Amino acid sequence: MARRRRRSAGCLAVVLVVAVGAAALVWLPGIVQRHGYKLEAQSCTATYGDYVDYKTAEQAGNAAIISAVGLSYGFDTWGVTVAIATAIQESSLRNLDYGDRDSLGLFQQRPSQGWGEPEQVRDPHYASSKFYQALEQVPGWRDMPLTEAAQAVQRSGFPDAYADHEREARAWAEALTGGAGVVECHVPDGVIGTPQAFAERLHHDFGSGRFAVEVADVDKDRTTLRITPLVGDESANHAVREWAVATAASTGVVEASGWGHRWVNGVGRSTLEEGEDGPEPVTVVIATR
Fold first, then answer.
1. What is the pTM of this model?
2. How far is Cα 131 from Cα 126, in angstroms, rounded to an integer?
3. What's the rounded Cα separation, in Å, for the pair 41 and 286?
4. Per residue in 271-280, pLDDT tens?
5. Measured in whole angstroms, how far is the alpha carbon of residue 52 from the centre of its chain?
6. Which of 46, 149, 238, 264 could join 171 via S-S bond, C-beta 3.0 to 4.6 A?
7. Using CB atoms within 10 A of its CB, is residue 117 exposed (0-12), middle (13-18) or buried (19+)?
8. SS3 call for 41
9. What is the C-alpha separation between 59 and 65, in angstroms, rounded?
10. What digits encode the pLDDT tens for the residues 232-259?
């Protein structure tokens, strides 16, 4: 059973090292996937083995939040898979301001059923936290089929529908929890970020005290940040690298590399050879103006 961890606010210092803690439209990704069209602007993929799933940048960013919150609560890839599959079924990974009766947000949680105030359930971090808190109260959820675990939380009128999204959810969860999956995004030029805003987003998604962010280089309109996990094993390096790709449309990240992979916006992914001192640390490059 996953153990909840308190998510503290923390303070952010602007210094070299910053301690931080991350309906027709529904069918479009499947059409793109089946026919092999090129990745278009503001679209992302998650690849796991020979399976590729397409999402918009908005959907990928929401999957990244769901995964990061799950990791902060101690959930593994399976728990994150259940959560992402649930959000795909309920909202197509979109933070909806409408739904059946008073259902709202990523998980279509109902304020009238005790999930929280309307503005709370439309906060992806809050909504994800509430889902995981409910999931960990389900006896034996780790050994259940995905659709049963999800239904135990959601109590949907379509209890078997979550199973339809297990494969795509697994691809995103494998990448975003540091497993064998990878994310690739193509986001439009002109998204501007700052080191402080990036660090604050990382802290907000993953919780404080999980990563340190160091400004490694500043070159005109590009700033390179080095990200070091403070807790967890090497999978944390993979997880934060893929999170940086999935959230690039909102953070201004144009490159993420380290631990065997490099992603460059508009170019794609490549592999990195391990040096004599081991894998390269995770770095991101942010467009700052």
1. 0.86
2. 9
3. 18
4. 988 776 778 8
5. 16
6. 46
7. exposed
8. coil
9. 10
10. 888 999 999 999 999 999 999 999 999 9
Q: Which residue from 5, 54, 107, 92 is spatially nearest to 246, judged by alpha carbons?
A: 54
Q: Tell me how far apart the alpha carbons of residues 157 and 167 are, in angstroms, rounded to a whole number.
A: 22
State the Cα–Cα distance between residues 80 and 117, nearest whole angstrom: 24
CB-CB contact of 77 with 175 (8 Å): no
74: left (phi over 0), alpha (psi -120 to 50) or beta: left
Distances (CA, A) of 234 to 50, 74, 279, 280: 24, 15, 10, 12
Sheet holding 182-186, edge to edge: 51-56, 43-48, 182-186
Largest CA distance in the chain: 59
Q: What is the DSSP letter of 111?
A: G
Q: Using only the alpha carbons of the chain, give its radius of gyration.
A: 18
Dump pLDDT digits (tens) for 199-210.
999 999 999 999
Question: Does an H or E element contain 67, and which?
Answer: helix 57-72
CB 177 within 8 A of CB 76: yes
For the record, the structure tokens of 155 come out as 């109590």
Class of residue 236 by CB neighbours under 10 A (exposed 0-12, middle 13-18, buried 19+): buried
Task: Give the span between the Cα atoms of 166 and 59, in whole angstroms.
Answer: 16
Give 39-42 contacts, CB < 8 A, sequence gap 24+. 39/184, 39/185, 39/186, 40/186, 41/186, 41/187, 41/188, 42/186, 42/187, 42/188, 42/249
Tokens 């944390």 sit at which residue?
A: 236
